[in-house]
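Researcher: Quick test of sequence recovery. Tokens follow.
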């Protein structure tokens, strides 16, 4: 197998460079002379995560698709700590990303099964207040493309990045209490009545009708003449303001034809 570098990272003081190679080895190099100092052995699959400690120049974290997370002392070429991400009944979970906290006392990782793993010193009581399952209600909504090839949310016919802040739900789609909804950026200062999502029945692309959290009215509701909620009014007002700003930006940037579908153009 031809060796290929999959990731590269400098340590905190830039004296060392660590490279991850597709033969599952990590190599530590002197960044000034290019001399190979250590081969770090432990991973059994490709490594795509290399994170340096925020202030300790000796420490480097690595994680990969084999589910292993290592803390290395790169000056000595030795393992300091090791964790294997075993998931009961499902084998191991590949680790996709890791980040240190600014104080260097904690680090967080995400895996292929949607788990957030938090490691560090101190008590874990503060994390126990958060529900085990947290999803956005829009996470698995189907998408479509309009005539201009722009991506739209199938249910609301809006560009996903212009939709209102989503609601937090569990794995079955049940909304969490309002105190958790305030954790969503954009909902921090909403009144309680605006943090209670509406439940409705939505037809999927396969024709199956499922219960789903909806954050605004659908076209069917408009046609039936149903009275809009306060949240719907806020969403429509924000959408109108966004459309006006987008239109003004387009007019000042270009005199070309505007998008007849009402879909905002990308910069």
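Model:
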């Amino acid at each position: 197998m031809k060796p290929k570098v999959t990731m590269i990272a400098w340590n905190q003081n830039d004296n060392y460079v660590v490279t991850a190679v597709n033969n599952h080895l990590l190599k530590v190099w002197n960044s000034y002379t290019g001399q190979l100092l250590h081969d770090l052995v432990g991973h059994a699959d490709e490594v795509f995560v290399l994170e340096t400690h925020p202030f300790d120049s000796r420490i480097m974290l690595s994680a990969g698709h084999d589910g292993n997370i290592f803390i290395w002392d790169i000056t000595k070429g030795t393992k300091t700590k090791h964790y294997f991400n075993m998931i009961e009944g499902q084998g191991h979970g590949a680790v996709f990303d890791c980040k240190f906290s600014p104080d260097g006392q904690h680090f967080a990782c995400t895996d292929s099964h949607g788990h957030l793993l938090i490691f560090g010193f101190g008590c874990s009581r503060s994390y126990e207040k958060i529900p085990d399952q947290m999803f956005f209600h829009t996470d698995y909504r189907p998408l479509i493309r309009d005539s201009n090839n722009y991506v739209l949310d199938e249910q609301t016919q809006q560009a996903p990045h212009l939709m209102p802040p989503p609601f937090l739900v569990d794995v079955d789609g049940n909304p969490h209490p309002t105190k958790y909804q305030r954790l969503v950026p954009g909902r921090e200062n909403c009144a309680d009545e605006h943090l209670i999502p509406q439940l409705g029945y939505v037809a999927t692309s396969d024709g199956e009708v499922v219960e789903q959290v909806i954050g605004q009215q659908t076209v069917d509701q408009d046609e039936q003449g149903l009275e809009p909620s306060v949240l719907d009014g806020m969403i429509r007002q924000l959408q109108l303001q966004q459309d006006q700003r987008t239109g003004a930006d387009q007019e000042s940037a270009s005199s070309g034809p505007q998008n007849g579908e009402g879909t905002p153009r990308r910069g």
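The CA atoms of residues 200 and 212 lie 6 Å apart.
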